[in-house]
Amino acid sequence: MELFLDCLPCMHRQVLEAARIATTDEACQARILDRAALTLARRSEFASAPAMAQAIHEIVRVETGVADPYASIKRRDLDAALTLEPLLRQFAADSDDPLRTALKVAATGNVMDSAIYSDLDIAACVTEELRRPFARCDLTELSADLASARRVLVLGDNAGEVVFDKILLAALAADGRELSYAVRGEPIINDATLDDARYAGVDAYASLVSSGSSAPGTILESCTEEFRELFRAADVVISKGQGNFESLSASGRPMYFLLKAKCALIAGRLGTAVGDYALIRRDVG
Questions:
Q1: Which residues contact 42 (CB under 8 A, 6 or more apart)?
Q2: Which residues of 182-192 are buried (b: 16+ CB within 10 A; e: fewer)?
Q3: pTM of this prediction?
Q4: What is the pLDDT of residues 178-192, one digit of tens each?
Q5: Which run of H or of E encompasses 280?
Q6: I want to staple 22 with a disulfide (CB 3.0 to 4.6 A). Which of 66, 108, 132, 233 is the partner?
């Protein structure tokens, strides 16, 4: 998906947040913003918002020397999500539509995104959001594809939501499917890495794999060949979150996007309203 002008103010806000998290040195923060502004001015060079975000967050790392500015925030979100795990499991167990409910739990994990929601009352928000139905849910198509699928790849998003994804992975494990769960290759904002996924216990449900990418999305050109081979070979791919949607919506293979629409531009592409949840099948784009 192309980079929109509307993405630029969000990028500016995000890099300022990251700079303030990484350092209290205002002179350093100013250098980061100056360099980020020059990057924003080169917007035509970037194919998507995740590609630009990758570049501006590299500026934060270089200027501050902090490899993972969001490390403590990710651990906070992971710990908060783990305390919610019994609630999530009970919500799924009480359902008479296990796959739909597991998908909704996984999608609801999107509210753990600290890069978008600051000072979020996580418990209250999750309880409310779990009750909201999908605005669009291509469940019939997914169920048909899963009926013959042996290899399923789930692409993770932010760190806190990997706990929610465990509910989905448990549902997908039926009939002995081979499950893989992919995360970022390096720390970027609050997205999940291998360490985050292991901390949440995801490796009990699926084989963990690094995409090799340091973007807040899955930019195939910057992923490892091992990941690209897995991506091509999977019978079903389920992609979590906006960043993956922005970077993979024209990936060249059929796949499913599971996300909450957090801005008007993404909602417009999904055919939903802002704040809606969706499971959408995209054919070759």
A1: none
A2: bbbbbbbbbbb
A3: 0.93
A4: 999 999 999 999 999
A5: strand 277-282
A6: 66
